[in-house]
């Protein structure tokens, strides 16, 4: 089963926005066993739309268009679809009523322009938009499907999930698909690949492996395709156990949306332990990641962004002589910061960063990209020196990822 | 002058990554006066590449392909380009030497597989890749150009900037293009549009306006196209002055990469003033934004992430009775936090947040989405109550944007 995605509108072609709609649609189609053959971004222009549609239908069973369904005159998708299917627009009273209700809710005046959104090609099945005014459209002929969706991401996503994906599953006989995500942390894609090479080569042919690297972690996604749900489930289970035996040290979770900060939160809650964070060069980035998780207040007591040396001395009890002797960017100062906040906030663990994120060497002589990360545990404090290169945002991001990795390892030990 | 961008590879089609390469190329082409007619993402498959190339060349003067140039057998772009141009691959010694040097630098063994990267269609002009191993290729015939670039974003961007854009400008007679960005803050796109409607409608026909909304701000980009640089420059100047007269209250800068945190930094440096930040519900997000700017240590003294009530009391001198009487999520506590950190860190300004980012109401009864933001100035402290809805990450992001907007206004006054 092949699909093509067509996005209509100039915003992508002038480089104004990233085409995140296509990414969402492609991900969701792949999950239910539909491959995406091509993604095409085109202008809001009748000739161009007609041509792209014809091209797409010559190869794909399913064509999904997004964009070009707004109330203004620029949006000509609907008229073009009517022309393509040799059809005419008719007013759909149900849709008009729905739009009126939507406008009334937010006290917007309903105008003739808005009424036009209820005009739809007569041959389409309207897809009700419960979160916006532009309805989606489903066309079906000769066992081929064309779907048109609004371009507003939230509306498109809602229509995809509630209408389009179920309708595709009803219309086409699709294989059963099972996904399992394994989240690894702290190793690059190529090293992970090397460690699991034998296992990967011996996967049954109905199970595919994808590497999804991002932000210091690599997600491994197993996709099994077949007709028996039971066989797929069992096979995936067997393969995950085998994998755990090979890389247990870097696996941190199995949820699709799991991140290292989620994993840290679960561990701390389970162990009823707490954490505090003292950040210099990372400037709040570690605190932000930890507090992004709902319920972080159960284990995260607080943090100090000790940017100025005076804050390190006064708030974290770092001995000024350490700074004078070793400079603020040193393992001695990182460890003193971690100990300082651990004692002050009375937490099980603390983590501290000090470094030079660049672009200039500032008041210390430290090379740009050098970061010291210290971890304080109930028993000890230790630190490591890292060199995270440049530019500034990468240094901060890498230091944050490494700090989270270090603290997670420490929590696991205790 | 029309271009088409073709990205080759499965990562985009399975929804694994966003097509950020196309966004970059489209932006850069538009800047030099080349319109992008279509962006097409296709599989790493010979037949598909040939077909997409033919289609693209039938409409576009310039076709830029990215991806499919790695050393492994999956990457068949080069062979396909040779076939398309009825050409053969020959070994380019200069390129091979360059790759050897790149490998030696990082102590990687140079293998036969890597040598293959030096094989190029004989008719192309190789584009030297100074930051990677895969060279770019420039094909020119019948006044039409096909360019092939590696898919690694950093390598693609370097080749675009150093080789492709200058070569396009040499090869084609392009109009003169002038861009001017005006950054506005604190108002939504539709409200900005309403305020400047008359001005926009009266723009000369060679000046186009684009709205680029993101993260609480709207960038207005004026693009003038013509043959006289002088006329364009003068006209843009005139229009910007007119615009300033209409929306001076929301314009915060004119640099393409300017953000509100950059603007705050420039103001504080100029006035030789300082700031400290106390964050509860925003959890480090404001500190992170402020410290993302190089040189922030000149004006940002430090911050406290006061997640637990004990930190608010002990570190920020918030009176426990205020918390008991009004709850931690209150204007009284927000103001006490701001005053507390301003006094402790001895800064000109302080900003504080306390609220409930959700998803649950936690230990207070406050509605999810409620946030109090307080600003302390040399003369006073005040706060405002906001309702930022949900989900959690949006509450945090909106509160952060609003806090930055409030503090910037305050700095401007003093």
UniProtKB/TrEMBL annotation, chains A, B:
<dbReference type="InterPro" id="IPR050101">
    <property type="entry name" value="CinA"/>
</dbReference>
<dbReference type="Pfam" id="PF00994">
    <property type="entry name" value="MoCF_biosynth"/>
</dbReference>
<dbReference type="InterPro" id="IPR008136">
    <property type="entry name" value="CinA_C"/>
</dbReference>
<feature type="domain" description="MoaB/Mog">
    <location>
        <begin position="4"/>
        <end position="170"/>
    </location>
</feature>
<protein>
    <recommendedName>
        <fullName>CinA-like protein</fullName>
    </recommendedName>
</protein>
<dbReference type="Pfam" id="PF02464">
    <property type="entry name" value="CinA"/>
</dbReference>
<dbReference type="InterPro" id="IPR041424">
    <property type="entry name" value="CinA_KH"/>
</dbReference>
<dbReference type="InterPro" id="IPR036653">
    <property type="entry name" value="CinA-like_C"/>
</dbReference>
<dbReference type="InterPro" id="IPR001453">
    <property type="entry name" value="MoaB/Mog_dom"/>
</dbReference>
<dbReference type="Pfam" id="PF18146">
    <property type="entry name" value="CinA_KH"/>
</dbReference>
<dbReference type="InterPro" id="IPR008135">
    <property type="entry name" value="Competence-induced_CinA"/>
</dbReference>
<dbReference type="InterPro" id="IPR036425">
    <property type="entry name" value="MoaB/Mog-like_dom_sf"/>
</dbReference>
<comment type="similarity">
    <text>Belongs to the CinA family.</text>
</comment>
